[in-house]
Design brief:
Layout: H1 2-22, H2 27-59, H3 68-78
Helix pairs in contact: 1-2
Length: 79
């Protein structure tokens, strides 16, 4: 899921910058969309970090930098 989110973000970023280069008249609107995309990406990253901290605090397991497939197995092992 994390990879899918990053891929979607990159596709949206590519689309937005392409539209910015094609239509010079709506640049202010496209810049707002670009900043909104960046903010949403940062929110997702911070939510992921909070979840990793919660797992670490409650179980003592460090799950940072763990692939999603392995993470699910680690979480199953905790219960």
């Amino acid at each position: 899921m994390l990879k899918k989110g990053k891929i979607t973000y990159k596709k949206l970023l590519t689309f937005t910058t392409g539209e910015m280069s094609r239509s010079g008249e709506d640049m202010e609107d496209w810049l707002e969309i670009l900043w909104a995309l960046r903010s949403l990406e940062r929110i997702g990253d911070r939510c992921k970090n909070i979840c990793e901290y919660i797992v670490s605090l409650t179980s003592g397991k460090d799950v940072r930098h763990t692939p999603l497939e392995s993470l699910q197995q680690k979480l199953d092992d905790l219960t």
